[in-house]
Design a protein that fits this description.
The complex is a heterodimer.
Chain A (H helix, E strand, L loop, with lengths): L1 H31 L4 E7 L6 E3 L2 E3 L5 E3 L8 E2 L5 E2 L2 E8 L2 E9 L2 E2 L6 E6 L2 H14 L3 H5 L1 H5 L7 H9 L5 H19 L11 H15 L5 H11 L3 H14 L3 H10 L2
Chain B lengths: L1 H32 L4 E7 L5 E4 L2 E4 L7 E3 L8 E2 L9 E8 L2 E9 L2 E2 L5 E6 L2 H14 L2 H6 L1 H5 L7 H9 L5 H12 L5 H12 L3 H13 L5 H9 L6 H11 L5 H13 L3 H12 L4 H12 L5 H13 L4 H10 L3 H12 L4 H13 L3 H13 L4 H11 L1
Parallel strand pairs in B: 1-9
Antiparallel strand pairs in B: 1-6, 2-3, 3-4, 5-8, 6-7
Helix pairs in contact in B: 1-2, 5-6, 5-7, 6-8, 7-8, 8-9, 8-10, 9-10, 10-12, 11-12, 12-14, 13-14, 14-16, 16-18, 17-18
Chain lengths: ~260, ~400
C-alpha cells in the first residue's frame, strides 16, 4: 500500500519544484524581455516593515536608507507606509544595472520607458532576486539581497546561506548575505524591540564590551563572539554578538546563524 | 681743489671697480643670447668646502655635512668618477627660443660629450654670480628661482648683499624671494643674521617675514635664536608670526631652551601662543619637559583646554606612563579623564592597557568604562580578548 504512494509523493515534490522553477524563470523571462528602461514590480512585505521616501524601517531602530533625495519612483502620503515591497530594476542593453527598493507608498506615473509587471508572489520575487545575487558579480548582485529579506511568508535562508558560502559569488555580495543572515539570527534570539525601555546598565556595558570585542584584531575575537552568541544568558547581549558576527565576514559565523535559524 | 680732485678720482676708482663685474655679466649674457635652443655650459671656481656626485652637492665643512640634490637620476651633463668630486662648479643653462628655461649646477666631475651644446669655457666666479643674480632679479619662469643656488656655490664671492637685496625686492615673485632668504640663512657670515633680522622687522609681506624666521632658526651661528626669543615676546608683532618663532625655538633642544620656554609660558597672555609653547616643549622630549607638561595638565588653576593640550603632548611625547596613570586617579574633571583614556589608548606600553582595563572594569563612571572599552577594542594587546569576554560573561 505504502509502496503505491511513494511514486505519487515523488511526483508531487518534483511537480512543485518544477512549478517554482517555471515561475522564477517566468519572472526572469519577463524581465529579460526588456532591453532598455525601468521594470517595476511589487510583492508582499513583512508586516513589521514600512517605508518612507528612500528609507525602509524594519521595526525598532533598524533603518535602511540610501539617499536623502526624494524617490523618483514612489510617492508617500504617510511617514511609515506598509506593504507592498516595490522593486525598480534599471535595465540597460538587456542587463539589470541597478535595483531600487521601496516599501509602501504608490507608484509615480510611469514614463514610456517603464514596464510594470504588477504584483508577483514573494516566492517568485525572492527566487529571482537571489538567483541574481548568485549570478551577478557587480553591485546588482549585492543590491538584490536586501529586498529579498523584506518578502513576507517566505523562507529565504537556505538560498541565502548558499550565496554566503559560494566561492563563485562576489565577495561583497557574500558579505551582504552574511550581514542579513546575522540580522535574521539576532531577530530569532531577541526581536529588535526586545528589552526596549528596560535596558539595564549591565546590558549596556556588556553590549559595549561585545562591540569592543568585535573590533579587536587579535584573531580570537570571532571565536569569543561565537561563544557569547551561543551561551550568554542575556538575549540582548547574544543579539549584539550575532549582529557583529554578521559584520565580521568570518565563515565560522555562518554555522552559528544556521543553527539558530534552523531551530 | 685738491679734495675735489681726490673725490673725483675716488669716484672713478669706485665706478671702475663696479664696471668689470657688470660688463663681464653682460658678456656672459651676450654670449648666451647668441644661442636660441639647446644648452650652454660654463665652469667657474667653486667654494673649497664643496664636492659633488651625480645630482648632489655636499658641504664638507666641520660644522655640518649637508647635501643638496634635485633628483636621484643620473645627470645628462656631468660624469663623476669619485663619490665626492672636487673641482670647478659647472653651470648648465637650457635655452628654448632664446630664453633660459632651466639652470643646473654641479661641482667636480667632467663634462659628458653632448650635441647642441655651446661651451663658454672657464668664466670668473664674479662674472657668473652677477649673471645669475641678473636672471634672479629680472628673469621669468623657473630659471629665476634656479639661478640663486648656483650663485651661492661660487668661490670667493660674498653673495650676502645680493641675496638680501633680492629678498627685499618686492617686485619679484615670492618663490624667488623665498629662495633668496633661504640661501641667506645658509651663509656662514654672521652678517646674514643681521640682514635676516632686518627682513623680519621691516619686511612688508608676512610671507617673507615667515621665511626670515625660518632662516634665523637655521643659521649655524645660533645667533638667530636670541632674535626669535625677542620676537616671540613682541606684543606688536603678528601673533601667527610669533607662533612660528616659538615653533622654531622648540626645534632645538637644550636646558636653556627648556628654561626659556617654561618662563615664556607664564609671560604670555594669548592662549594660542601658550598652545605653541606646549607643543615646543613637547619637542624637547626630555624628562624635564615631560614632567613640566604633566604638571601643567594636573594644575587645576590652568584652563582645561591648556591642560588637555599638555596631556595630549605628554602622551605623544613619551611622558612617563606611571606618572600619567597615577594622574588619572587624581583627576576630577570628566573632560580630562576622557582625554586621558585617549592618551592611554595611544601608548604601546603594557601599563597603559592595564590602566584601560582597570578603568573599564572599576571606574564608577559608566561613560568612562565605555570609553575605556572602546579603546581596548582598538588595541592589539592579546590579553584584551579574554578581558572583554570576562566582562560579558560575568
Amino acid at each position: 500500500m505504502l509502496k503505491r504512494f511513494i511514486p505519487l509523493f515523488a511526483l508531487i515534490v518534483v511537480a512543485s519544484l518544477i512549478t517554482r522553477e517555471v515561475k522564477a524563470q517566468s519572472l526572469a523571462n519577463r524581465i529579460g524581455g526588456v532591453r532598455e528602461g525601468k521594470v517595476r514590480l511589487t510583492f508582499a512585505a513583512r508586516p513589521e516593515v514600512c517605508g518612507y521616501g528612500n528609507s525602509i524601517s524594519r521595526g525598532g531602530d533598524n533603518h535602511v536608507s540610501w539617499t536623502s533625495e526624494q524617490s523618483p519612483d514612489v510617492i508617500y502620503d504617510d511617514e511609515c507606509s506598509h506593504s507592498p515591497v516595490r522593486l525598480v530594476l534599471y535595465v540597460d542593453d538587456g542587463r539589470v544595472t541597478k535595483i531600487r527598493t521601496y516599501v509602501g507608498g504608490r507608484w509615480r506615473p510611469a514614463t514610456s520607458e517603464t514596464r510594470d509587471l504588477g504584483s508577483v508572489s514573494t516566492r517568485e520575487a525572492t527566487s529571482y532576486l537571489l538567483s541574481l545575487a548568485e549570478s551577478d558579480n557587480g553591485k546588482v548582485g549585492r543590491e538584490a539581497i536586501m529586498p529579498a529579506t523584506l518578502a513576507d511568508s517566505v523562507r529565504i535562508w537556505p538560498q541565502l546561506f548558499r550565496v554566503a558560502r559560494s566561492e563563485r559569488v562576489a565577495k561583497e555580495t557574500r558579505k551582504q548575505a552574511m550581514f542579513w543572515l546575522g540580522q535574521a539570527a539576532s531577530d530569532v534570539v531577541a526581536p529588535d524591540n526586545y528589552g526596549k525601555g528596560r535596558e539595564t546598565e549591565d546590558s549596556e556595558v556588556k553590549k559595549q564590551a561585545v562591540f569592543a570585542l568585535s573590533q579587536h584584531r587579535s584573531g580570537e575575537s570571532v571565536s569569543a563572539l561565537i561563544q557569547v552568541a551561543r551561551n550568554n544568558r542575556n538575549p540582548e547581549v547574544r543579539r549584539s554578538a550575532l549582529f557583529w558576527l554578521g559584520q565580521s565576514g568570518d565563515p565560522r559565523a555562518l554555522d552559528v546563524f544556521e543553527q539558530i535559524l534552523s531551530r | 681743489m685738491q679734495i675735489i680732485r681726490a673725490v673725483a678720482a675716488g669716484s672713478l676708482i669706485f665706478l671702475a671697480s663696479l664696471a668689470p663685474g657688470d660688463s663681464e655679466a653682460q658678456s656672459i649674457a651676450r654670449r648666451v643670447a647668441s644661442v636660441r635652443d639647446g644648452k650652454v655650459r660654463m665652469t667657474y671656481p667653486a667654494r673649497p668646502d664643496l664636492c659633488g656626485w651625480g645630482n648632489g652637492i655636499s658641504t664638507r665643512s666641520s660644522h655640518n655635512n649637508t647635501t643638496r640634490s634635485w633628483n636621484a637620476e643620473q645627470n645628462d651633463d656631468v660624469a663623476f668618477d669619485d663619490e665626492c668630486s672636487v673641482g670647478p662648479a659647472r653651470l648648465v643653462l637650457t635655452l628654448s627660443e632664446g630664453r633660459v628655461e632651466r639652470i643646473r649646477a654641479y661641482v667636480g666631475g667632467r663634462w659628458r660629450s653632448a650635441s647642441n651644446v655651446t661651451d663658454l669655457g672657464q668664466v670668473s666666479a664674479r662674472e657668473v654670480v652677477d649673471y645669475l643674480f641678473d636672471i634672479a632679479n629680472s628673469g621669468s619662469g623657473k630659471a629665476a628661482q634656479e639661478a640663486i643656488f648656483p650663485a651661492t656655490i661660487a668661490g670667493d664671492v660674498n653673495v650676502i648683499q645680493p641675496l638680501y637685496d633680492l629678498a627685499r625686492n618686492e617686485s619679484r615673485r615670492s618663490d624667488v624671494r623665498d629662495q633668496a632668504v633661504f640661501w641667506l640663512s645658509q651663509q656662514p657670515d654672521e652678517r646674514a643674521v643681521d640682514l635676516l633680522e632686518n627682513i623680519l622687522k621691516t619686511g612688508r609681506s608676512e610671507d617673507i617675514r615667515d621665511k626670515a624666521i625660518f632662516g634665523l632658526s637655521q643659521h649655524r651661528s645660533g645667533r638667530g635664536f636670541a632674535i626669535l626669543r625677542q620676537y616671540a615676546e613682541d606684543n606688536r608683532a603678528p601673533e601667527d608670526l610669533r607662533a612660528k618663532a616659538i615653533f622654531w625655538l622648540g626645534q632645538r633642544k637644550g636646558t636653556d631652551r627648556f628654561d626659556y620656554l617654561r618662563g615664556l609660558y607664564t609671560r604670555l597672555d594669548s592662549d594660542d601662543l601658550k598652545d605653541k609653547v606646549i607643543f615646543a616643549m613637547s619637542q624637547q622630549k626630555d624628562d624635564a619637559s615631560m614632567r613640566w607638561l604633566i604638571d601643567l595638565a594636573s594644575n587645576s588653576r590652568e584652563p582645561v583646554e591648556m591642560r588637555k593640550k599638555a596631556l595630549f603632548w605628554a602622551g605623544q611625547g613619551g611622558g612617563n606612563i606611571e606618572m600619567l596613570t597615577s594622574m588619572y586617579d587624581r583627576m576630577r574633571e570628566d573632560e580630562l579623564k576622557e582625554h586621558m583614556i585617549f592618551v592611554f589608548s595611544q601608548r604601546r606600553e603594557r601599563a597603559a592597557v592595564d590602566k584601560l582595563m582597570q578603568i573599564a572594569r572599576n571606574d564608577p563612571d559608566r561613560d568612562m568604562r565605555r570609553k575605556a572599552m572602546f579603546w581596548l577594542g582598538q588595541s592589539r594587546d592579546p590579553r584584551v580578548s579574554a578581558f572583554l569576554s570576562d566582562i560579558i560573561t560575568r
